């Protein structure tokens, strides 16, 4: 008897449940009628103001229902093509209303993303990216970002000329516009045009990316995307030159090796490695002068497997050539690695001790680099 009492839970009155079901069914029927009515206004309505209002209502209804099914029903009703035609209108209100409607139809719906691009949305969006009107330009940036998340769309967007205008947004846009542009470029970064090896990134992106990386938290998701782009850019001669020409370019990447997330550190050390591998004589001194050694030593112990390999390879390139110096440095790296990897992770006190030893070793290495740099500078000054 007592057990039966424990299992009993208050049940919702049948009348209340039935009422909710009826209300849900009524709303779904009303929503389906609205979808058809709005589609009809867009497709057959001759009045531009009617179409603008219909586009606004589509956005409002999608936002209200927040349902993938609602987005799909609008697409099935044929609203995508007339919305794209509105993007070509000289009327700015029409462009804004259709942009917002398309953006909302594309969010969280991969099929709609592909359908919008297939229906020809990218050329008018690229034209809007050229606008001086910042609000429209940044809406177009957000739309490109959303559409570029679908794999089938990437080659079409990359070939459209959109990336060069996204690079301009990195300098001219608002904070949100810059974030959207970096994310869109990151989505497109592995895409090639016509199956060629031409990477869809312009070296002009380097300077604004370095500036943005300076300002953001090095362990943020944004920093991960920015350093991924810089790593790609570092593989071209123009990109490497732009990194060294940017104020604090190499220093900013070195700081990301020291302070970034595991992903950011991996991309940052990859960028430095590309520099040094392309021309050791040119880049070795530049990297050393920014104090890269401490962060690289830490990375050999604490980074991802790829980061550790890259850090060791870069340390080999940064060393002087005599074998005894190479051996001494290798011994230091092994000590660092052993301290970090052989301590039992369950022993928190021992782990903390290992971390402090590692940090002390890195700091000693940093001090040594700074003293060496100072002595080199003094020896290069000629007496009058």
TrEMBL record:
Keyword Repeat included in the entry's annotation: yes
Domain of life from the UniProt record: Eukaryota
The record ties this protein, via Gene3D superfamilies, to: Leucine-rich Repeat Variant
Acidic residues: compositionally biased ranges: 1-10
The residue ranges of the U-box domain are 189-325
Give the UniProt keywords, A-Z.
Repeat, Ubl conjugation pathway
- What is the designated name of this protein? U-box domain-containing protein
